[in-house]
Amino acid sequence: MSIMDSLKAKAKADKKTIVLPESMDKRIYAATEQILREGIANIVIIGTPEEVAENSKGYDITGATIVDPFTDPNRQKYIDKFVELRGKKGVTAESAEKMMTEDYMYYACLMCKCGDADGAVSGACHSTGNTIRPALQLLKTKPGISSVSGFFLMEVPNCEFGDNGLFVFADCAVNPDLDSEKLAEIAGLSAESFKMFTGGEPRVAMLSYSTMGSAKHDDVTKVSEAVKIAKEKFPDIALDGELQLDAALVPSVGELKAPDSKVAGHANTLVFPSLEAGNIGYKLVQRLAKAEAYGPVLQGLSMPVNDLSRGCFAEDIVGVVAMTAVQAQLSK
Ligand code: ACO
Q1: CB 3.0–4.6 Å: which of 91, 135, 223, 287 could bond 208 by disulfide?
Q2: In a domain? residue 125
Q3: What is the residue with the minimal CA distance to atom 17 of ligand 1?
Q4: What confidence tens digit (pLDDT) does each residue in 129-178 have?
């Protein structure tokens, strides 16, 4: 069974309600038809009757709940919640109403916050920033977490590394400014994500262009400091660094360059030193190794909200909805 088939099976076992705010995109309806047919999640679509009728032509979305943000009986409850959460940032009832109806992602996050949905998925026709900003503002991080980050679950075909080609790569999507503290936090969250989505034991490599002091530079120190912090914070996680990618993945190289490390040569959870490295790294593996790249999945948020690539296919949306539903099961 592929990792996605097992995640869909998990999602079906305890169905969650996922809200899709991009009623203006036809791929949402193709995905909804499949999600409902396979019983992966309950679906709420936010849109006016005109938007839904125009874009859902040809798809059977019977069973989806359509919420019109202009006439929804819960609308006032969401406006009040928005003002309660963001009044100090200058949001008024009037501006809340405007933001919710001009950008349905705000509406979706308020539905989650008020307990009317378990998670949200967007980004088929919105940038990553515009998709996740409402979630950062309204849902915030889990207690004790300072930064939300984004990982990809990578499934590399015919691969002897990681857990038979399964990996978590992070942060590939969110934080442009990573310091040692943030990298350490990402290591802990990524280990949790690896376990949550694969059921396997995480082995976390903190990546660099240096292995165990082989090079000296502030960028290397940033990672080695992160390793110290993470080892102290998460003594039960198998974690090591700083490691070059080959030393992290390939047993013979790990043995040669970091002989005392239990992670070197066996890593399945890769923490990249910067957003550039993470974002470029996952795309290289996706394109050159023809890997499946599921994500970016956000980790560290108080409720699951996930982003889609604007080049996504309906099948990708189905996958991200399944992952969001699994996160929702485990975050309750
Ligand atoms: N974790 C938690 N909270 C955060 C984070 C974070 N990583 N980043 C920002 N916030 C909070 C801020 O504290 C702020 O809260 P407040 O309004 O209550 O004070 C709120 O979110 C908004 O913050 P801003 O700084 O105003 O938001 P910004 O415009 O910087 O957006 C964002 C944040 C969207 C994460 C931005 O850093 C970003 O665009 N990152 C890069 C995304 C990207 O383009 N990724 C690559 C493409 S993805 C792909 O290829 C699959």
Answers
A1: 223
A2: yes
A3: 137
A4: 899 999 999 999 999 999 999 999 999 999 999 999 999 999 999 999 99
In angstroms, the Cα distances linking 66 to 16, 199, 200, 244, 303 are 16, 34, 38, 49, 21
pTM for the structure as a whole: 0.93
Residue range of the domain that includes 186: 149-292
- The CATH number of residue 28's host domain is 3.40.50.10950
The residue among 185, 327, 208 whose CA lies nearest residue 267 is: 208
Residue scoring higher pLDDT (40 or 296): 40
Q: What is the distance in A from the centroid of ligand 1 to the CA of 55?
A: 30
Residues 185 and 167 in one domain: yes
- Determine, yes or no, domain membership for 31: yes
pLDDT digits over 309-326, tens only?
A: 888 889 999 999 999 999
